[in-house]
Amino acid sequence: MIVNNKNGIFVFCLLLALGALGGLRCMKGCDTGQQARGIFKARIVEIATNDLGQVMVFAEDAGKREMVFVKNFYSEGANSAKISADMQAYYNKIAHFRGRAVTIRYHSDAVGDNIIDGID
Question: Which pLDDT does position 27 carry in this prediction?
Fold first, then answer.
């Protein structure tokens, strides 16, 4: 079977562009409003920060169901030093919860992240 090179390149570029668009989760103007609220009674297994301006909380309940919760600190126009300082302050505030049973109040945003509203 002979494939026309022009058509092959066009199809490849089209698939590449569609893949890139599908990989984008959310851009400026995206609706990230609250979609669902919940309460998760669990033990915090680990707490970590990432390059996206987030503190992540890894938790599991009595049935060994695991969930990841996120607290976002990135905001457009904020300098990286302030974001880093806010993240570190929050991390230090909740670090003593590691290994303890807690109640996590959260909501899910439009992209499916579980956003932390509070930890008790």
Answer: 44
Over the chain, what HEC string results?
A: CCCCHHHHHHHHHHHHHHHHHHHCCCCCCCCCCCCEEEEEEEEEEEEEECCCCEEEEEEECCCCCEEEEEEECCCCCCCHHHHHHHHHHHHHHHHHHECCEEEEEEEECCCCCEEEEEEC
pTM of the model: 0.68
Q: Are 115 and 109 in contact (CB under 8 A)?
A: yes
Spans of the chain, pLDDT less than 50: 1, 3, 18, 21-32
Q: Give the per-residue pLDDT at 4.
A: 52
- What 5-14 contacts at long range (C-beta under 8 Å, 24+ apart), as own/partner pairs, is none
User: CA dist 93 to 20, 40, 83, 89, Å?
Assistant: 37, 19, 15, 6
